[in-house]
Design a protein that fits this description.
There is one protein chain. This protein is mainly alpha-helical and 238 residues long. 58% of the residues lie in helices and 0% in strands. About 3% of the residues have low confidence.
Length: 238
């Protein structure tokens, strides 16, 4: 059985051998940080090669050769899949952390034969999630508000500070929730933004107050007919 079984299960025999050789042994490799492990070997690629371009894009070294990573984020031409730059960078950071744990476990002689395969499965799920998150559907994006065009000769209105903004909000009658929902983020679906806003403490407090106010108004009974306080006096006989 290999002494680096967990690392080989996670990264493969060839990539594990390259990392150990570049670091100068298992001991020096296990003492690296996850960031150092991520950048290990980045200077060894040919300047004009596709792997060098990929390494420069992702700020990473030999880990870009991981079969697991390439399965999700790299095509057959050693090029990054369109629109997946940030997701691929996060995936490599996660891979470096898991790989370092496997290396440390193997270097210490800890008997845990399923650690590498367990981490491999865990990373597959995480990579799939990152891949889907990186695919931003055009229908989910929201356009920016149209810019205000200043015509020549017109006096530019002052935006004012925080107090002026509070006055405008008080005058237009908009609630805190309405103002929060009016702000948009590019690349985030409207449903996700709404869920994020509803988790805010100030929004929850406002909704609770509105519910209590509605409940109080419902308990109040309005008079169905007008009552004159002198009706009883008029009915008396003198």
């Amino acid at each position: 059985m290999s002494k680096l079984k967990n690392t080989e299960d996670l990264l493969g025999l060839e990539l594990t051998t390259k990392l150990v050789g570049k670091a100068g042994g298992v001991g020096p490799l296990s003492r690296m940080s996850d960031k150092a492990l991520k950048h290990l070997g980045s200077e060894d690629y040919e300047p004009t090669s596709a792997l060098k371009t990929l390494s420069t894009q992702l700020h990473c070294g030999y880990l870009i050769e991981s079969d697991l990573f390439r399965q999700y984020f790299v095509n057959d031409d050693n090029e990054l899949i369109d629109g997946q730059l940030h997701s691929a960078q996060k995936a490599l950071s996660a891979l470096a952390r898991k790989a370092l744990l496997a290396i440390k476990m193997d270097a210490s002689g800890t008997v845990e034969n399923t650690f590498g395969t367990d981490q491999y499965t865990s990373l597959k799920d995480e990579f799939a999630r990152l891949l889907e998150k990186g695919k931003v559907d055009v229908n989910d994006t929201q356009a920016l508000a149209a810019p205000q065009i200043q015509k020549r000769g017109e006096r530019k209105a002052k935006r004012g500070g925080k107090k002026e903004q509070q006055k405008r909000h008080a005058n237009d009658g908009s609630s805190l929730l309405e103002r929060a929902l009016s702000r948009v983020k590019m690349g985030v679906s409207e449903e996700e933004q709404r869920e994020e806003i509803l988790q805010r403490d100030d929004i929850r407090i406002q909704l609770r107050k509105e519910q209590e106010k509605t409940a109080q108004n419902g308990r109040k009974r309005g008079r169905t007919e007008e009552v004159d306080e002198y009706n009883d006096l008029l009915s008396l006989d003198f």
